[in-house]
Write a structure and sequence with these properties.
CATH topology: Rossmann fold
Shape: globular
Number of domains: 1
Number of helices: 9
Strand order of the largest sheet: 2-3-1-4-7
Largest sheet: 5 strands, parallel
CATH architecture: 3-Layer(aba) Sandwich
Strand content: 15-25%
Distance between the termini: 9 Å
Radius of gyration: 17 Å
Number of strands: 7
Helix content: 40-55%
């Protein structure tokens, strides 16, 4: 059986991060979250950091050549020898081509899980979302609040709002960016017969039940 490269696709707030963590824990494969990787890079003082920070603040995409190089390094690492979960990549057709080349090199198999959700629901989720800057845990003030005020249940760190989620106009731009660049990718993978749609408006538990069935079927 070829190692499975699971691509989680869905607009901001669809729950990709939450579901990726569940998949990683259940199947013992790493969660490669491009958004978190680049938010860490943006904290630095290098020219790369400045470029990435500007893209994040404006709600745009990090240049493909930068993204492809960093993701390739991860996929070729020993960490991904059994497979991986890609969250936030690929986001453009150029990235799709780069990923196809990498998958061919490592002898992997692609499974695309597309999380579908209404735009208004996305905005509501993102406005109320909190993230732990230390362990990456995700919370929602309405649907999944932390037990102790605004501190992480897992490590006790002070929770933060994502910088690019604070303004609704930036969030809308992120959704528009997703629709412009990523939805054609779903169509591309649909033509290859590797896409499974999952209703992301359900509870996280029900969403994962559906995802687990999809993955188990793909690994038979």
């Amino acid at each position: 059986m070829k190692k499975l490269c699971i691509i989680l696709l869905g607009p901001p707030g669809a729950g990709k991060g939450t579901q990726a963590k569940k998949i990683a824990k259940t199947y013992g494969i790493p969660h490669i979250e491009s958004g978190r990787i680049f938010r860490e890079i943006a904290k630095g003082d290098s020219e790369l950091s400045k470029t990435v920070k500007k893209c994040i603040e404006q709600g745009g995409l990090v240049p493909d050549e930068i993204v492809n190089r960093i993701i390739k390094e991860r996929l070729l690492s020993e960490e991904c020898r059994k497979g991986c979960i890609l969250d936030g990549y690929p986001r453009t057709m150029s990235q799709v081509a780069a990923l196809d080349s990498i998958i061919g090199e490592i002898g992997g198999k692609i499974l695309v899980i597309s999380l579908k959700i209404n735009k208004n629901k996305i905005i509501e989720r993102n406005i109320n979302r909190l993230i732990c800057p230390v362990c990456g845990a995700i919370y929602n003030l309405k649907t999944n609040p932390p037990r102790d005020d605004l501190k992480c249940d897992d490590c006790g760190s002070q929770l933060e709002r994502r910088v690019d989620d604070e303004k609704i106009e930036v969030l809308r731009r992120r959704i528009e960016t997703y629709e412009q660049y990523t939805e054609p990718i779903i169509k591309h993978y649909e033509e290859r017969g590797v896409v499974k749609m999952v209703d992301a408006s359900q509870s996280p538990e029900k969403i994962f039940e559906e995802i687990k069935k999809v993955i188990d079927q793909a690994t038979l």
